Amino acid sequence: MSASDATALVAAARAVRLNAAARYSGFKVGAALEAEDGTIITGCNVENATYGLTVCAERVAVFKAISEGHRRFRRVVVVADAATPTPPCGACRQILWEFGGNLEVILANTTEETGRYQLADLFPLPFDGGSLE
Ligand code: THU
Predict the structure, then answer these.
(1) What per-residue confidence (pLDDT) applies to 2?
(2) What pLDDT is attached to residue 4?
(3) Probe ligand 1: pick from 14, 17, 19, 27, max atoms within 8 Å of CB?
(4) How far is the centre of ligand 1, averaged over its atoms, from the C-alpha of 64 (Å)?
């Protein structure tokens, strides 16, 4: 797989999206994070009756990855069944930045890729560990 070929990563995000526990919004999201060693770690959104305890697909993927020992990441794919791109929410941008830095963020839906960004462009002027020094 070449650096720009995200076929496997997009496929992984589409597949895990089908596991989403999205009974309240009906909006299923899948995320696939690529670790530096090429491992793909996936996550889906997990909703809750309190609504506020819902966790987005991206954060599920990051927390799974960290828990499994991965520390460096290259790219993340986010997939939803929507004509317009579904970018990571603010909370997820903070978490992706914390653990992934300036990741490539690839957006897709069930049939096509809808955009590619660098996280630094989606999340300028972050508060992070450097802010505490
Ligand atoms: N959601 C994600 O999982 N990731 C995003 O990038 C946007 C929103 C989820 C949260 C909630 O379960 C549903 O989509 C509707 O907001």
Answers:
(1) 44
(2) 74
(3) 27
(4) 17
What ligand 1 atom has the least distance to the C-alpha of 46? Answer: 12
Report yes or no: 93 and 76 within 8 Å, Cβ to Cβ: no
Burial (CB count within 10 angstroms: exposed 0-12, middle 13-18, buried 19+), residue 38: exposed
Arithmetic mean of pLDDT, 99-114 = 98
Q: How far is the CA of 86 from the centre of ligand 1 (A)?
A: 8
Task: Give tens-digit pLDDT for 1-21.
Answer: 444 799 999 999 999 999 999
The structural domains of the chain, with segments of one domain joined by +, span: 7-132
pTM for the whole thing? 0.96
Q: What is the pLDDT of residue 130?
A: 94
Catalytic machinery residues: 58
Which residues, including other chains, have CB under 8 Å from residue 66's CB and lie 6 or more apart?
Answer: 99
31 lines ligand 1 (CB under 6 A): no
27 in contact with ligand 1, CB cutoff 6 A: yes
For the domain made up of 7-132, give the CATH fold. Cytidine Deaminase; domain 2 (3.40.140)
Give the up-direction half-sphere exposure of residue 24: CA atoms within 13 A in the CB hemisphere: 11
pLDDT of residue 82: 97
